[in-house]
Amino acid sequence: MxxxxxxxxxxxxxxxxxxxxxVRTRAGLFDVSHMGEVEVRGAKALDLCQxxxxxxxxxxxxxxxxxxxxLNENGGVVDDIVIYRLEADHFFICVNASNTDKDFExxxxxxxxxxxxxxxxxxxxxxxxxxxxxxxxxQRLTPLGLREIKPFHFAFGEVAGIHCLxxxxxxxxxxxxxxxxxxxxxxxxxxxxxxxxxEDGLKPAGLGARDTLRLEPAYPLYGHExxxxxxxxxxxxxxxxxxxxxxxxxxxxxxxxxxxxxxxRLVGLEMTEPGIARGGYPILKQGxxxxxxxxxxKSPTLGRAIAMGYVRTEHSEVGSPVEVEIRGRAVGARxxxxxxxxxxxxx
Amino acid sequence: xxxxxGLKYSKEHEWVLVEGNVAIIGxxxxxxxxxxxxxxxxxxxxxxxxxxxxAFGVVESVKAVSDVYAxxxxxVLEANDALPDSPETVNDDPYGDGWMxxxxxxxxxxxxxxxxxEEYAEYVAQQKGEDEDEDDGEEEEEEDEDEKK
Lengths: 347, 149
What we know:
heterodimer, A: 347 residues, alpha+beta, Gyrase A, domain 2, Alpha-Beta Plaits, Elongation Factor Tu (Ef-tu), domain 3, 3 domains, six-stranded mixed β-sheet, six-stranded antiparallel beta barrel, 7 helices, globular, B: 149 residues, CATH 2.40.50.100, three-stranded antiparallel β-sheet, 9 strands
């Protein structure tokens, strides 16, 4: 167990690699109740969300969710978030645990009397059931027609008799669901899911596996790939940034950066010599520092040492040979295409 | 928890098998359990000098990088060449095939600071007790809060 912002969090239950592979091949259950929730409602709620984020919130209907970014005036990322549209004028925003207070204040201060903003983090337990067998396991416990819940959609319904928001979202690169419920029911929900998934090899999974599972599909992690001074254009998140939606905080800075071209870019790296690149290690080109690793591990799925990091744009081309400085030694690596891992489409 | 008799143990959770002037060194069952799945091992080469209490090698789990400290000083006679290709051996057999280096000891007095099996077993039990008291656990190298997204 580790302590994190007042939360007791399991890094691993059994073994990290076992948990990781359970999610890739069967299913894993994560307790991610540390994630924060901020709710925005009122007649101008949509306008407020639109003005503070990069993605086009008007594109999602009730029952849909969207990956999005809160941006500052420089186009830097305040947080990466998932916005659920509960009602036409009611948005439920899942934020990073360590950013909950910052995000809440950020939105509240800019809301004025446009909308009501509330930190409702303490009202939800969040469990993530992830893996190719997630739907099969969950379907046994709920009358909801899960087939009808498409990726980035959600519904309210009972799971094991407990009222939940059931969303087809996740952070592992696999199919799966995230469930939100009343904390008083959290333990019962966890146990019902673990019991219900036993025959399919469901395993409890910790933060360690959550990190390696997100790294393989190259999902960014706030504090590593993203922070207040990193823009979505640098972070390969241009797809999230909808310039066409009209004005939003940070837009001008991003338009300018797009015209001028980014100076650094997030890339994937694979080690070509023995060694594991880790967050913070320098990335070199013929001895000269050209960037820094943001996350790295030995990929349990691929069996290779993989990493993400920022390098000067001129060195960001796929195939470009570079080195990573590991304990004072320059170790061979090369820039590779992202993601490292993509799940096979469900047939 | 396996703590074989006849070995000497350090507070950093290394074991030493003494054969005359030669010390064979590895990490303990407790250490490998705490580290989790080991995926990378880096060891010194024969002929290198190792200073007591300094890091002589590195083991990496999927999540974390950890130094391995020399319980005694000396000159490396041999490193376990099998480990870089099969680092999981350290998990599977920490006191056997998972050994790390053989040293020619420079000062046998170094051994005086080490614990017997019995003392070490007690030391580990104590550490576990403290972990439970504090709740936040072990001497993990990775204090990387951001990763808990």
